[in-house]
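Team,

Forwarding the record for the chain on the shared tracking sheet. I've put the sequence and predicted structure together so nobody has to dig through attachments.
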Amino acid sequence: MKLAAPFEFATAQKISFGAGRLREIGALAQTFGRSALVVTGRNIARADQLRELLRVANIATTIFSVPGEPTVDDIGRGVAAARGAEADLVIAFGGGSPIDAGKAIAAMLTNPGALEDYLEVVGRGQTLTAPPVPLIAAPTTAGTGAEVTRNAVLGATAHRLKVSLRSPLLLPRLALIDPELTYSLPRQETAWSGMDALTQLIEAFVCTRANAMTDALCREALPRAARALPLAFQNPNDASARSEMCLASLFSGFALANAGLGAVHGFAAPIGGMFSAPHGAVCACLLPHVMEQNIRALRVDSAESPALERYSEIASFLTGRRGAPPEAAVDWVRSLSAGLDIPALGKFQIGREAIPELVERSLKSSSMKGNPISLSAHQLSEALARAL
């Protein structure tokens, strides 16, 4: 019997999952503070129910809108808003963008200096030392799993990059996942966010830092996502499908935070920094092409790699056929993408002339280091070209 490899596992201090759990937010928030900065997306009206529940619980609220994927400047404005309101609690309510913004705001309320001091790549990479103010993360999409990850992805506009603020201290005190909050998601966002979750599960399962705990989570969640995503796309009010996708997203967050990702997310960071392309859409466009390159490279250069067997497992999870070859997983993802109306990357004004710079930047990303096999610049260029 093979000895299990050592690993560590970290996540949010408390997780509350289930339909209707938002109605408990008042009592839960009272344990953390009395004045909350509510960080949400472009449509602030979506937070009306949340704010009313907090009002009944005698918790003051100040709304802070992040209209797109958060930038360094957004965090500065959020910190100023929180201090002006004397907020002792941050509640991030929305998709991955508001949640990442909430993490960074909560951290910078208690840690000295400028945000840039703590950023990877473009900053000094200092370690956060002071615990952030209490953070509650309540996702309204089923995709990023950001409610249980320990980094915040931020746009560094001046550098045309997306970079991470990363620390175990960023893990929320409470992750509240209520599938009812996802019922109103437009079909396009359902597709893009769901494909992000699927990508995270696949990449975490085959990455070089996978472990027994994350393997179990991925094996549990992949079949759920395969069944539920098409159903949630076709019928937004399918309670079972929405719940399954929220669970798959949560598990994908557990997995990526404790194992890692791969080349799809290695590309996603520089693409998001250089172009106005939603993260989930980028992952959806790239996933089948990167899987295909990985499987081909593994067959040629590392035929004994356990990653090939894992791609075969993925194929079985996705297709429902035991013993399916790795390539069947690629075919299934392509078919799903077509059914979800996933566009090519060219829709986001990304042209072939950008490929060399995107490949160069992707090779420096932390996610690329987790890819199950080292892909050459030529192989990465081919995958990206096919996604266009």
